């Protein structure tokens, strides 16, 4: 889908929300839902930051770390990819206190989602680094660069561009996963929706608005990532890496 | 820290809950695989449906499954259809993954060379025979691994059903925890169950992939 | 004895947006006639075959097969665009062999040849297999009947494709550059089969080809296409020996130099 189509869909979704807002049956839910959406966005942003950090660290650990570090990173990735976000969220929420570790629900949410998406992210980073053309490594070695210099100046910048679309998908997955935090009593968009639904039973207006709001957030991420990709590859030759 | 006798006590309860989880997975996947195929076929056979279907697929893929589960669970009664949580939840999961599966089928169909369709026209084969004998048998083998991956993904998302109180593994673990105030054992066992199943399935899918590749080439 | 043409293109045009691929083509092909179509790429020659096989729609004109309209049907004394049932009925008389063979890769040679006779003509398996065995024998591949396309050479695959098309007993056979995708040493065996079926069956044949030697020796008539129109046509001796049109001469010179 081209950027224009995506922006078109975004505008259409916003227009529909605006239209529905003029109906009283819909507009009385909007403020509460938007309040929840703010929390959703906060968790999504912080979770994404953690995911990127974990993803890069784990990838570098698996590619270049000494054996124990490599092993640790592999265990992390396998565990967090082999179980679902909800299982991880509940485990951290219910089990950590049993070991005396007390965290507020918000921190647990960011931690769980960040670690979860970070595990998938590490595969993306690893793949992108390995996909950089061998000639680049060879040229860097011929120029006597150190491993750190090579990575920082030559490899990672090129890998970065290839990573953008898959990370975009992961960020959207993280956004969708934020709905799970409603199950550990965080008052995000999903929580607000359920709360309002329980008290008014006006399922259709509430959930229509909720789905539209998630759609809008999802499109914003996708469009943002497209722009990022365009800007990042502006200096390079046309076409993505291999 | 870890109470082994407690672990063995709760194992039977968790085991029977695991059966519910597996049931939900299998029924959900059958819905997803079949409905996904129907969606893909309709897109091809009736061209004007391509756009509405792709919008629907985008909508389903861009919004959380949890919300879709809540929506279906609460919306059905409004139309006079009363379903228990298990049924509503499994249908929601099935619909959600049908959207993903339909994209897998779509890519599979796109990979069939145009010449196959043209040869069928040249032989004057009717549409239904073209699909049944020529196209679908060529579409299915290459996409089995991708479908397998969605089966595993679906399986890992069944704990979402705990949100509407379906007595699958996660819900059962939570109940054990709230009853006994010991969460460590049940939660960890649930986690281990999913982890082991996930690793085993990944290995099975890899084997399947290799077998299928051997069959289609020389 | 009828002098109705087997195939008639009646002022047929085909456009892709602003590009006109075929411009008011009028061409009659008699029953049992063997016609070769030659010309540079982009001249519209493949499109002629594809329109006749209903793989492409036409923008203007009518295509007739054995006195009946193919692309249109008679309704209340007028010609209206045909529906699918009508098209399927008329195109049953036409068969096609493709440049890229288009064999069904998940079926053996035998299965490829019995699929349409069983599904479309309703033949019983035993009868369809008997006919297929005969045809595979005729193209020299009876020992390969249980082989899959991936186990056959290009020339063998193309011969199976010919048998598959013949199994439907078409009255008109279309050959779309059927040797262009073959290694040079395999071209001969396919041309030999075409020669054979041309001799033994009363088939009307329309061939787009780059094999000038074959076209010269085998065809009753050669049509040279240029930019969507027939630039020149005639018996091969005339067209190859003494082309009247400068463009024909240029094309033949270029082809002979390359070959």
Notes on the protein architecture:
The complex is a heterotrimer of chains A (242), B (218) and C (259). Chain A has helices at 3-21, 24-27, 30-64, 67-82, 85-95, 105-131, 134-142, 147-177, 189-200, 203-232. With 242 residues, chain A is mostly helical. The relative contact order of chain A is 0.16. In chain B, 81% of the residues lie in helices and 0% in strands. Chain B contains 8 helices and no strands. The relative contact order of chain B is 0.14. The mean pLDDT of chain B is 91. Chain C is globular. Chains A and B meet through helix 4, helix 5, helix 8, helix 9 and helix 10 of A and helix 2, helix 3, helix 7 and helix 8 of B. Chain A: This is Ectoine/hydroxyectoine ABC transporter permease subunit EhuC. Chain A: InterPro entries: AA_ABC_transptr_permease_3TM, ArtM/GltK/GlnP/TcyL/YhdX-like, Ectoine_EhuC, MetI-like, MetI-like_sf.
Continuous helix count of chain C: 9
Mean pLDDT of chain C, rounded to whole units? 91
Structural class of chain C: alpha/beta
Compute the CA-based radius of gyration of chain A: 21 Å
Percentage of residues in helical conformation of chain A: over 70%
* Helical content of chain C (DSSP H or I, runs of 4+): 25-40%
Strand tally of chain A, please? 0
Q: How many individual β-strands of chain C?
A: 12
Strand coverage percent of chain A: under 5%
| Major sheet size, sense and barrel closure of chain C | 6 strands, mixed
Poorly predicted segments of chain A: 238-242
> For the terminal residues of chain C, how far apart are their CA atoms?
42 Å
Helix-strand pattern of chain A: HHHHHHHHHH
How many DSSP helices of chain A?
A: 10
Distance between the termini of chain A: 21 Å
